[in-house]
Amino acid sequence: MPTYRDEAVILRTHKLGEADRIVTMLSRGHGKVRAVAKGVRRTSSKFGSRLEPFMVADVQLYQGRSLDIVQQAESLGAYGADIALHYDRYTAANAMVETADRLSDAEATPEQYLLLVGGLRALARGEHASRSILDSYLLRVMALSGWAPSFTDCARCAKNGTHTVFVAQMGGIVCDDCAPAGSPRIPSTALDVLRALLAGDWERVESATDRDTAAASGVIAAYAQWHLERGIRSLSLVEGNR
């Protein structure tokens, strides 16, 4: 149908001409969508503020040849203002939407949409440490994309045991027999944090030491950027706050 309606998270925007914007969205039912929002940069625009990054909106679009056209937008989640007030929330949110934008269209499922909305909502409300919300999102989004890391059995040979070598290229924790020479080890307590972040066990995450959460963050960043095949630029700005 030429016209359709969907819920969407605004990932990024680009200026187009004097008054328009190209808006990239992750929608619930149509995956990633790029659309032109006409006149939204004018002060008289009725829905320009609803099409800013980190906002969640109910949008009506007209299907075009290369870019769709935004016809209407109603706010469903106004998270942008609360996120922008705090540097740690803002940088974490940027890393999350950048990751969502990097994933291919085939991976843009309703579950991806709901995960991102939940993460942005948690950031806006300050429910947990911003870096931990980001880390949990990265682990879960990788899992939803078919790249769930192994934190128990060896990712290469499935050997049981207490393994402490993490190799992103191999898919997670590996045993000593499979680990490449010189591979760094991570503390077992940091592994506990990684498992808790993936499972959403916030009580365990928040009781961890700064050292363990920092170690877990480093592992997650390496793993996510390996699978995305290039760096997440926003990660360099994220503070390792608790």
Walk me through this protein's architecture:
- This protein has helices spanning 80-84, 87-102, 110-125, 130-144, 188-199, 202-206, 210-228, and strands at residues 3-16, 20-27, 32-37, 55-62, 68-78, 165-167, 172-174.
- With 242 residues, it is α+β, with helices and mostly antiparallel strands.
- It has two domains: 3-78, OB fold (Dihydrolipoamide Acetyltransferase, E2P) (Beta Barrel); 81-237, Up-down Bundle (de novo design (two linked rop proteins)), CATH 1.20.1440.
- The protein has a five-stranded mixed barrel. Strands 6-7 form a two-stranded antiparallel sheet.
- The radius of gyration is 20 Å and the shape is elongated.
- 40% of the residues are buried.
Strand-helix topology:
Elements: E1 3-16, E2 20-27, E3 32-37, E4 55-62, E5 68-78, H1 80-84, H2 87-102, H3 110-125, H4 130-144, E6 165-167, E7 172-174, H5 188-199, H6 202-206, H7 210-228
Parallel strand pairs: 3-5
Antiparallel strand pairs: 1-2, 1-4, 2-3, 4-5, 6-7
Please give a handful of descriptors for the protein shown.
OB fold (Dihydrolipoamide Acetyltransferase, E2P), de novo design (two linked rop proteins), 2 domains, two-stranded antiparallel sheet, 7 helices, 7 strands, 22% strand
Kindly state the percentage of residues in helix.
Answer: 25-40%
Structural class: alpha+beta
Q: What is the count of DSSP helices, taking H or I runs of 4+ residues?
A: 7
State the shape: elongated
CATH topology of the largest domain: de novo design (two linked rop proteins)
The CATH homologous superfamily of the largest domain is termed Recombination protein O, C-terminal domain
Q: Beta-strand level of the residues, as a percent range?
A: 15-25%
Measured on Cα atoms, how large is the radius of gyration?
20 Å
H-E string:
EEEEEHHHHEEHHH
Strand order of the largest sheet: 1-2-3-5-4
pLDDT below 50 for ≥5 consecutive residues: which ranges?
none
Provide the CATH architecture of the largest domain: Up-down Bundle
